[in-house]
Write a structure and sequence with these properties.
The chain crosses the membrane at residues 7-24, 73-94, 115-141, 153-170, 177-198, 218-237, 258-282, 351-370, 376-398, 405-423, 429-449. Belongs to the sodium:solute symporter (SSF) (TC 2.A.21) family. Keywords: Membrane, Transmembrane, Transmembrane helix, Transport. There is one protein chain. By secondary structure, this protein is an all-alpha fold. The protein has helices spanning 2-22, 29-34, 41-52, 56-66, 75-87, 91-96, 102-110, 112-145, 149-197, 201-206, 220-236, 238-246, 250-267, 270-281, 290-298, 301-338, 345-370, 374-385, 388-397, 403-422, 431-453. The longest helix is centred in the middle third of the chain and has 49 residues, at 149-197.
């Protein structure tokens, strides 16, 4: 246990040290919020992967494999990889826009009301997502130390807030690269040890209900729905698009996205296998504790330490991206636009740091209140994507889009998606899918009506 503790403490100190070092690279708001728009291919792929492989893709997938999804829980990450590959088709336009936030693009295209609503949806969603990552980190700390989950939330939340506040996007990007390699190495080494020490794969299979090994147990409708959900949420999510804005050019944005998707697909079923091992050997534990329990009891201390660091890597990477994304939206899209229009560059950096710190405290409170992982992820994805999706994608690609199409599609799509989730997604149709359909249909109908009535001309298309 001393070795596990040593690796864990060293890793946390390293994260804080990188945050302090990154502060020396920040000389402008573009450096703090977008790493100077100069990250290369491998850094773009690594930071995207580390940001999107978070608590849901590690602790959450293992918990789902332990529970109702079985082996097919791995599709949760595979779908994410496919979704981010699809985003590569619009990545050039994202980078070409030279924006800082996703709401900024909608505001340029559809005006102030759409801008404000999208900013608020993005802000609240990112705070919820940051809370999810803190919860996932806390499960590891709780199992590792025996401390209460609330104490684990405080510890993981404080570390996350400190290194994100100090270094901004440079800190996030540099730590993301380290996190990603620790994640891949830690999990890759853990699987064979866990299987061997659990009695071998044949023994594990004999202890499991046969349906838990179904490769598509979750169902193709859910798998396809997850791919669509991830395409939507990655193309509209601030923590993802902020990395496309930070890429040094359009080509880097495209191939960084493709490489990220491939890396995620390769990793996807690893946590699901660990979840099945946990179910076979420890059938009475909390599903969220599956990875930590297997790592501590079925792998050597050095490997267990790497796995603990790997999971913390995933959750901190995703959480820092979410936290910085929320702060960026609030600073650029709300405060600078409507409260203090004439902020200097130094004021933007200072205000952004203060905002990251305050939002970090709010994210800790969200984690304390919710203590959920995948359900909270899906709720946040639905909130930020269902309404703005049509306005964002069609606004980027359709020159004939009209002003009112943006605002009405955002409002009706968001209401429809949240209501559909509230009534528990009838007919097995995911809320984010239902809401996006309403959003797209509304957008097209309003454009048609405006054209028919010869209302205001279409706003200028983004170049």
């Amino acid at each position: 246990m001393e070795i596990i503790w040593g690796i864990f403490i060293f890793y946390m100190i390293a994260n804080l040290a990188i945050g302090i070092y990154s502060q020396s690279k920040v000389s402008s708001s573009a450096d703090y919020l977008l790493a100077g728009r100069r990250i290369g291919l491998l850094m773009t792929a690594g930071t995207l992967a580390a940001t999107e492989i978070g608590g849901g893709s590690t602790v959450g997938v293992a918990a789902k494999a332990y529970g109702s999804w079985g082996l097919s829980a791995g599709w949760y990450v595979t779908a994410a990889g496919l979704g981010i590959i699809l985003v590569s088709f619009i990545a050039p336009k994202l980078r070409r826009a030279m924006a800082t936030t996703m709401p900024e693009i909608i505001g340029r295209r559809f005006g102030r009301p759409s801008y404000i609503i999208t900013s608020l949806l993005s802000l609240f969603a990112n705070l919820a997502l940051a809370g999810v990552q803190i919860t996932a980190s806390a499960t590891i700390i709780s199992v590792l130390t025996g401390l209460s989950q609330n104490t684990g939330i405080l510890i993981s939340g404080i570390i996350l807030v400190l290194y994100t506040t100090v270094g901004g996007m440079w800190s996030v990007t540099l730590t993301d690269i380290i996190h990603f390699f620790v994640l891949i190495i830690g999990f890759a080494l853990a699987v064979p040890f866990a299987i061997h020490n659990a009695g071998g794969w044949t023994h594990i299979v004999s202890q499991l209900p046969p349906e838990q090994l179904g490769f598509t147990k979750v169902g193709w409708k859910t798998i396809i729905g997850l791919v669509i959900m991830y395409f939507m949420t990655f193309s509209t999510g601030q923590e993802a698009v902020q990395r496309y804005y930070a890429a040094k050019n359009e080509k880097t944005a495209v191939w960084g996205s493709v490489l990220c998707g491939a890396l995620m697909a390769l990793y996807s079923f690893v946590p699901a296998i660990l979840g099945l091992v946990a179910l076979a050997v420890y059938p009475q534990i909390n599903p969220n504790d599956a990875i930590a329990t297997v790592s501590i009891h079925l792998t050597p201390s050095l490997i267990a330490g790497l796995v603990m660091a790997a999971v913390i890597s995933a959750t901190l990477s995703a959480g820092s991206g979410d936290l910085l994304g929320a702060a960026t939206v609030f600073t650029k899209d709300i405060w600078q636009q409507y409260v203090h229009k004439n902020m200097t560059d130094k004021e933007i950096v200072k205000f952004s740091k203060i905002t990251v710190f305050i939002f970090g405290i709010i994210a800790i409170a969200v984690s304390m209140y919710s203590k959920q992982i995948i359900p909270m992820l899906v709720f946040a994805f639905t909130m930020r994507s269902t309404g703005p999706f049509a306005a964002f994608i069609l606004g980027l690609n359709w020159k004939g889009a009209t002003p009112y199409a943006g605002i009405w599609s955002i409002i009706l799509g968001t209401v429809a998606g949240l209501y559909w989730q509230y009534i528990n997604e009838p007919y097995g149709i995911m809320a984010i899918i239902f809401g996006s359909i309403v959003s797209c249909v509304t957008f097209i109908i309003v454009v048609w009506i405006e054209k028919m009535l010869h209302h205001d001309p279409a706003p200028p298309a983004l170049r």
